[in-house]
Description:
22% of the residues lie in helices and 33% in strands. It is of the alpha+beta class. Strands 2, 4, 7, 8, 9 and 10 form a six-stranded mixed beta sheet that branches. Strands 1-3 form a two-stranded antiparallel sheet.
Amino acid sequence: FNPQPKMSFAAALPVGCTSDHEELDLVLSPACVIDEVQAQLDRALPPGMKVIVIEEMPLKAPALQMQLLAAEFEITVEDEAAIGLLNERVPQFLAATEVMRDRRGKAYNLRPLVQTLSIEPAHANRAAVIRSLLQATPEGTGRPDELAAALGLNPAAVKIKRAKLIFLDKTN
């Protein structure tokens, strides 16, 4: 018998993306003291990673994955030519009713999966930041790399960070 932890993340982080905030369900047996669990995790985690909060939930509570509504992403663009095109392409994307994309050979409309989209223009650091809130439900999930591509950007040439997860009854 090899006991293994039962845990599941609220949402898989897309390949190539970073994140400042992740949430997961973790089932501990036997029951543990939360403060002790946090202390043990803090000692075991690599430098730069820390546990912010642990909440005890009923075992029958819906999984985080089922409570997830959306994810907020930041796409940092450093290429000057690409930055110049964004002021035109972001409004075009927002005005469109359909932005057809292909995922695994199947066409889908990306536009309704993008709930919000804005751009912070380049400043002294010469980078622009696209902020978007993408739907993340069983009915459909918006992908930040697909959004970048739909805006005419090379997804491999931008920095994508998931900034926040939005849940049914949570604010973090």
